[in-house]
Amino acid sequence: MMNQELARAFARDGYLRLNGMVDAAACAALADETWAVLPSHWRRDDPASWHGEVTDSCHAASVDQRGGHLKYQMKALADHPSVVTAFQPGSPMHAFATELVGKPLHRIRLRGLYVVAPTRHPHQNPAAPSPHLEAHPAQIIALCYLEDVAPGGGGLLVWPGSHHAFHPAFRSKLDYVAGERLADVYARYRDLAPVELPGQRGDVILIHNRLLHSPSINRRRRLRLAFLCDYTSLDHTELCQQLPGSDPFEDWPGVKRWLGDERIEPARCRPWSWWQRLRHSQHARNRPSKSRAQSSINKADASNLVRERRPGDVWLSISDSPKWFEHRDSLDPMGSNLTAAGIHTTWNGQRLQSRSRGDITVRLSDVRPENRLEIQGIDRQLWVRVLELRSPFSASRRLHAAAIAADKPTVVLTVAAPAEPAAISER
């Protein structure tokens, strides 16, 4: 299926749309799985029922407050028969991704079922709500439409050619380790308009991991249903530890095999037209107020924290959520506002200020061979960990972990530091 024309398009644009890649039966089965986890009062044939507060895998908020975007990330879905036959090793999709990258790939990294519901006031939502890059290592992100998606129906937005600018702006080939120029590249693309990618049931959109993209607002009376997964090479750990060059395909022998020495000029995004810019700024001003639910605040803070990580950093996290302690390599806040509750911390005698509004999350600067952590104002069960970040970030390790009961208002812990910090190689 792979050919020179597709390789050239992917190198130029950073994305491919593969029409009819997944059969109708598999799409229907995954659509049924989606409806099974949507709110019980939602009915397929009644758009008026698609409203109210929704709790997905990330947080709880109303449909309007979240711009209609829902994520359901269930691990068991990786072994669903439709996912196995359509996306896992042995499937045509996995074979295509392997040929595109040009090296052996893992089983898919499951992202889950992604829904974009129409909001009650779509005119109050911005046209491009959250342009971003993925914060985890992967070469390819794959999005499969489970039903037809018309223009304006919540299709994926992409900034063609942006992978050429973003790839060298990081300090890791695959992990999200921001370089000095990353903020400038983001700023440049804020003035450029994205391209909307509608599609038919079974179409799969593949994007390069450094391609700027975003969900869009659904202005139709139909849910946008999609399945999302990632393809990652077996050598991803080594690539995470290497600095990137200027070529976003420097470690893609599959693309290189088709293109040879041909130089591909990246696609160029068009500037926003005057009416798009006016519309976008008005929508941003008129956007419904964000939910003040703690889960929504935690989600926003988690997005910021994941982009502050650096290999070799040591972070302190304290939470009152038992669920949080199960996420071994995550800095995501999941509990309540501990600072507002009167819980304070010092590290080697220095008062700490949390980087998140939920839990207490702090990057530690004064790290010694032996460190003194004091927690004051304890009035509830707490879970504590000190995490040394490594590359890839999934390989980060706990330097200290403890559960603290609510029977003592002050607890002092001794934490040993790592012997050697993690680093990114110059290869």
What does this structure look like?
- With 427 residues, this protein is of the alpha+beta class.
- It has 2 domains: 4-286, q2cbj1_9rhob like domain (Jelly Rolls); 296-416, no CATH class.
- The protein contains 11 helices and 19 strands.
- Strands 1-9-6-11-5-4 form a 6-stranded antiparallel sheet. Strands 15-12-17-18 form a 4-stranded antiparallel sheet.
- Strand 2 (53-55) and strand 3 (60-62) form a beta hairpin.
- Helix 1 (4-13) packs across helix 8 (253-259).
- The longest helix has 14 residues, at 24-37.
- The model has no long low-confidence stretch (mean pLDDT 89).
Sheet with the most strands: spatial strand order: 1-9-6-11-5-4
Percent of residues in beta strands? 15-25%
* Total separate domains: 2
CATH topology of the largest domain: Jelly Rolls
State the CATH superfamily name of the largest domain: q2cbj1_9rhob like domain
The level of helicity is 10-25%
State the distance separating the first and last CA atoms.
33 Å
Number of strands: 19
Shape: globular
Largest sheet: 6 strands, antiparallel
Rg, nearest Å: 22 Å
Q: Would you list the SSEs in sequence order as H and E?
A: HEHEEEHHEEEHHEEEEHHHHEHEEEEEEE
How many helices?
Answer: 11
Mean pLDDT: 89
Low-confidence stretches: none
Q: CATH class of the largest domain, anyone?
A: Mainly Beta
Corresponding CATH architecture of the largest domain = Sandwich
Structural class: alpha+beta
